[in-house]
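# nightly structure sweep
# worker-07 picked up a monomer target from the shared queue
# config: single-sequence mode, recycle default, output format = structure tokens
# input follows
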Amino acid sequence: MSNRSTAVVIVNYRTPGLVVDCLRSLVPEVSAEPDLRAEVVDNASGDDSVRVIGDAIRREGWSWATLRPLDHNGGFAFGNNAAVRDVLTSRNAPRYIWLLNPDTVVRRGAGTALIDFLEAHPDVGVAGGRLEYPDGGAQTSAFHFPSLMSEVEDSVRLGIVSRILAPYRVPRLPRDEAHRTDWVNGASLLVRREVFETVGLMDEGYFLYFEETDFCKRVRGAGWPIWHVPASRVIHLEGQSTGVTGSNMSKKRRPRYWFDSRARYFRKHHGATYTLFADLIFMTGFAIWRLHRRLRGKADPDPPGMLADFVWHALRRWV
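# output follows
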């Protein structure tokens, strides 16, 4: 197996059609990178996912793809770890692990671009690609770590406040050149094998969301730089699995696991007091934003019941 050997891990939960489209988009990548293999993990979908995906793999002759059904849904990190754990302990462990969301379609050369970058930069531990809408428009793919200042900026949303706190804003503006960043979106993320061997697997205490933020925080803490590589382009049909992000964001209430994941990240990396201040800042700032929005007659872009739900989940944790 070559130094470019790569294992692609795709975790499915009730999106078999999207997974088949994702696998189909990987066919040119397999031609360009003969040592690329894909493993689809089904997170106990309980629908026809296993049949649909398995049939597609057999029908299309995708000998480079395998399907692993799990007996229960332990979350996104749990699903990824189920595959990564076996990949790392296999006889011919690959040099790289490429985590791909099921709601992605890989543009030609996306995998090669990420592999080329890590090959050329042996000190870099993780590389994330440019995520795009189907029309080619850029999505936010590179980020700063969340902080107290970013909680102020994200919740208050007043022009002067946002301008002052722009350096702390979590989403970074898209750039055309490769650049170092705090963390990258887990929808397309290439990890050097030694990184997993150094920092361990993803934290399964996160059911969904913040797991890649947490992972990258640990990777950075272990001394591995993280880079965003726009030359790797992947269409991301954002939020198709959950409805929590993307175009569906304002239509559904945030699920409990989003609040729990946010709190887990702050508590794990900054402590209980910091987390309390982060909660208080967000609640106060968001209340100010809602008052300002109503006085100005602006449309509501947020999920239904966001403030009430935030307060409830904060009280549930702290009381």
